Each structure stands twice: as structure tokens, then as C-alpha cells.
Amino acid sequence: MSESTMTALESCLPQLKCHFNWNLVEGGESLDEFEDEVCNDTEFQNNEFRATVFNIQAYIEHRRGRGEAALESLRRAEELIRQEHSEQADLRSLVTWGNFAWVSYHLGRHADAQMYVDKVRRVCAQARSPYRMESPELDFEEGWARLQCGGRHNERAKVCFKKALEKEPKNPDFASGLAIASYRLDTWPQPQNPVDPLRRAIRLNPDNQYAKVLLALKLQKMKEEEEADRLVEEALKGAPGTTDVLCQAAKLYRRKEALDQAAELLRKALECSPDSTILHWRIGCLYRTKVLEMLQDPGRNEMSVQRAKLQETIEQAVYHLKRVDEANAEFPCVCSYLACLYAQAGKYDAAEHYFQKEFSKELSPGARQVLHLRYGNFQLYQLKCEDTAIHHFIQGMKINQESKEKEKMKNKLHKIACTRLSKNGTDSVALHLLAFLQELNGDMRPAEENSERCLDSGSFLHSVSFTEE
Fold it and tell me: Among 29, 304, 407, 459, which is least packed, fewest CB within 10 Å?
């Protein structure tokens, strides 16, 4: 390839409408987190979105330096487009061809890159620019790609779908994209009511079960629960095995505190995507919530059936959360969740292992504060090691962040001090705790005066549940 031809190729690549020109991953973003969010998300894993997923996967593979894997993903995307959009295959393939050109160029296969650029140019022959054209289908493709990437891309996705709808206002796919983007942007950057876009999407396509369940979730928040329940039942009946519908419906039932129904729906979704880390995370958290509810039942220790049910629920929560931990996915508190569950099951060695694993991570100040509270509870209520518990409550309180966890640790330390002083009025540990709490509160009264107040108040109950955080 001559130098002039090479220069021409390099100048046209930035003009192509494709993922490599959409700034999907910024410099500071983690590629691992981006990949997990985009490629393992349950929202767009159904067949009609697979070509978009393969295009994004190719973008990620290229960013990782795996050019051949990127090309394979693009071939799969191109094949799906030809199967699903045979009448518009060339138009629908423009984004994929642009991606092919970028990957081929960076692999040093300049002739292949030029071939794909030429393909784009032939389709765009009637457009003002030889390498890009204005088309609602291309706006739609960019919108879906940005919806898949989520976060900061939702606003731009909404713009893409609105632009496409201006040219084809009765297109149900474009209306669906706008409805989903509007739903995601409901509270950001300013309140945007998605009800009308969702109703429009359903009106244009009564079989749009995903839009129905999103509308149900919005109506549930608006306290219009009768219509919300009807819509979600319709959606589940119309798409009983569709992952995104199942997951959103589970969210509605979880809000209703119908945890068994929510778990059943998520398990059905898991049958379609058995290795989905996000699904294991959601199911594990559901079972953990059930464990917490069961522990708050005052009669839980009175019947062997209830104890067996609690043990079974703990095992379910542990199974799914361990799958998340083994996948090395970045989910908050997964190890401390496991630690607390093992502690409740009486498996203290396993609990200690997961607590230490969580301590070894780089945690935000708030997350570390929560961890000190949970580990302090473990030491205090399970291992009966008050000194270690005191140490961790103090460490948690030293973190400069006001929170409900900090207030709970403060109360625990105060109660511990009062109880110790009720047994020994000169207990040095108790007096040091009171002095520490005074210093944090800016309270200048002598520790002795505070100790007298503790003695007057009497001791506190030691039957606090481990689940108290």
C-alpha cells in the first residue's frame, strides 16, 4: 500500500460510525468492570440484541490486544445481522464494517481495512460524506450500543433514539429504545417521567413485554400497584423465559417483599445464563435478606423445622455468593456477606477466612467502616472476644465519615463501657472508652462523671442479634 493510500485510509477511519469512534471507555475506567457490566448484564442478552453485544465484545477484545478474537466477534455480529435483517443487511452492517476496518488496520492488515472502508463508501455513495450517512437505523444502532454500556451513555442514547424517531415516529424498535433510555434517566440528571415513552412503546408494539415490566416498576413507585401487578403478570405470561423480563419482574416482587417469588424468577433467568455473575449476586442477596428476616423471628429457635429452613436458606445464600467471589467480580461486600452467613451457621473458621479476605481489599472509607462493625459484631456475639470487638469498633469510629454504622459502633462502645463499670467502677478499659467517646463528641466532662451516669443507667441486654449492624 502506497504512502498516499495509507494516509487516505488513516484519515477516513475517524469518520466511520462505529464503536471505536464513540468513546465507550474513558481513560480512567476499568476495562474489567466495563466488560463485566456490558457483556454479563442480563438486560440485553436476548437474541435481538446479540449483534450489538458481539460488536462491543470486539471493541473490548481489541482494547485488550486480542485482535483475532475481536475479528471473530465481528464475524458473528455480521452473520447475525444477515440472518435477522436480510433486507437491510448492508445498511445494518455499516457499524460492524467500521469496526472491522479499525481492527484490521491495527493488526497491520491494511488491505483488509481498505476493503471494509470501501464497503462503507459504496453504501454511503448517496450521502454527503463518503464514509458516513444519516440514517435512523444507524442512530438506533448507536443508541443500543450506548444503552448496553449504560451509565454516562444513557443521555446520549436517548438523543440517538429521539433522532431516529423524528424520521420514523411509528417505529416500535426506536420507541422501545427511547422508553428504556427515559426509564434509566428517570432521576438523572433531573426528574424525567418515563411513563409516556413506555406507554408509547407498548402501544406501537403490544408484545413489548420488557417495556411492560419497566412501566410496572415505575407505576409501583407511583403507588399505582393494581396496574403494575397486571402489567408484570402480562409480561411474564407473554415472555416466560426471557431473561431481562424475568430480572425486572423479580425487582418488582422484591420491592413487594415477596422474596420467594423474586427468587423463583431469578432462578428461571439463571437457567438461561448459568454462569451469570450478576444473577448469582442478585439471588445470593435475596437469600441473605431472607436469612435476616428469619433471624428477626422471635420463635425461630422453638421449632426444628424453622431451624432447618434457616440453615437451608443460609446454604443457598452461601452457594450463590461463593459463585460471585470465585468469579473475582467487583461486587461490594461479597466476602463480608459470606463471613456473616458462615458465622450464623456456626462455621467460624470459614467466617474468619472471608472477613480477612475482605480486609485485604482496597475499600472505600464507608465500606471499611461497615466491615469493622460486622467483624466487631462477630467477635463480640459469636466468639465472645470483647477486647477484639472493642478494637474494631474503635478503628471503625476513627474513620472520618459520619454514618449510621459509626453511630451504632459508638452506642456499642458506650454500652460495653457501662456494663464493665457496673461490675467494676474502676475498670480502666471502660474509662478509656468513655474518654475516647468524649474526645470524639467534644464532651469535656470528666470520665468519672460519665462513668457515674453509666452506673445509674444499669446494664444492657447481651442478646443483641448478630444481624444487627
Answer: 304
